[in-house]
Amino acid sequence: MRIDGVGTVEGDLSAGDFDCNGMTKIRGGLIASEADIDGLFTVDGHLSAGRAKIDGKAKVKGSVKADVIAVHGMFDVNGDCEIEDFRIEGAFDVKGLLNAGKLDVLMHGYGKAREIGGERIRVRRRASGVWSRLIAWVLPRYSPELRTAFVEGDDVDLEYTEAEVVRGGRVVIGKGCKIGLVEY
Amino acid sequence: MEQELISKKDLLDEKGISYGQLYRWKRKRLIPEDWFIRKSTFTGQETFFPKALILARVDKIMNMKEDLSLDELADQLSPSFPDYELRKADVLKRNIVSHIVLDRFASEEEEEVVYTFDKLLYFYVVDKLLLAGEMSMEEGERLLGMLREHFPKVEGKPCDLVFIRKMGVSSFALLTVPAELVFESGVKVVARIPLAQCVEELKERIMQA
């Protein structure tokens, strides 16, 4: 299944391989074994995928369940995320629980989740150039940081994260973190 | 018989499991979403679980992990009603439900009558409360009627059975969880049983050949 250009699907979509480029809107849920998403992408329902690759801006109003997701860009979800292997470079806002087997975050922009839990969790921020350091000094609120209530995992490695509680087996709190309570 | 809760921290300590494992089991649907109960404590928000249910479930997962993959395990543990049906005679013979309950509430039915799982569940719940000595036969009869009439309406949502008594007058309720119930003084909560637990127990009883 392939959509190029501006496409709107009225209802649910279930596909083996799903490929979209441009502006795609699905007014229902999407189920796909493989999804290759480029551009602006909105799902009104739930996203359920085997493997998904997203380059651009994706918004899911429901929840997300997938084996592997790799995102370059923006990823906004209103519900919960359950992903075995989640790699994201860019920005994300998960209004529910981000439950990932392996979570690898490289923030260029904001990172937000209500809570984060999983096995291996790693958060980094992209190396800063002169401009971003200037912005961070003048407008500290605009500095990309991961904001969440808790982070719980077996192996937790954080930088530039603001959280009330971090709990885990092995916990590394790196630079730029503001953590209320750490338990390990 | 109050609903006893255990904190996530205590659970991890007691069972020797890790945060990651718990999240993984949640993703695999081995632990139902509604067993995760959020409460505010003085240290902030904490997660609790129904104690009996979670301890039994964790044991089951740890035991069966060797033989089954997590996905196969998830199929086995799904909360939907199994297709079990038993004839009345077998129910008696295998002591799934005590004969007291069947004599009193199902006496006019013949031995060959086949009970579906939901009917067995109602008998089982009444049996459980009677055996615990917390309920009278008359109350049992009302409970049975109430379950038959209202349990199907709950439509598979997880719920607790709440049994209260005030000044000698008793009442039953089905409460979809998670919810907190606070009563006026003088009301005694005789029992609060998660029906999911009864479903599990009954399944186990029936499966023990």
What does this structure look like?
The complex is a heterodimer of chains A (184) and B (209). Chain A is globular and about 45 Å long. Helices cover 5% and strands 77% of the residues of chain A. The termini of chain A are far apart. Chain A folds into 2 domains: 1-67, no CATH class; 80-184, no CATH class. Chain A is mostly beta strands and 184 residues long. Chain A is built from 1 helix and 9 strands; from the N terminus they run ββββββαβββ. The mean pLDDT of chain A is 91. Chain A has a 9-stranded parallel sheet, with no helix packed on it. Chain B has 209 residues and is of the alpha+beta class. Chain B has 2 domains: 5-76, Multidrug-efflux Transporter Regulator, Chain: A, Domain 2; 85-207, no CATH class. Chain B is 44% helix and 22% strand. Chain B contains 9 helices and 8 strands. In chain B, the strands form 3 sheets. A 3-stranded antiparallel sheet of chain B has the order 1-3-2. The longest helix of chain B has 15 residues, at 117-131. Chain B is globular. The model of chain B has no long low-confidence stretch (mean pLDDT 82). The A-B interface holds A 82, 84, 99, 101, 117-120, 149-150, 152-155, 164-165, 167-169, 180-181 and B 18-24, 26-27, 43-45.
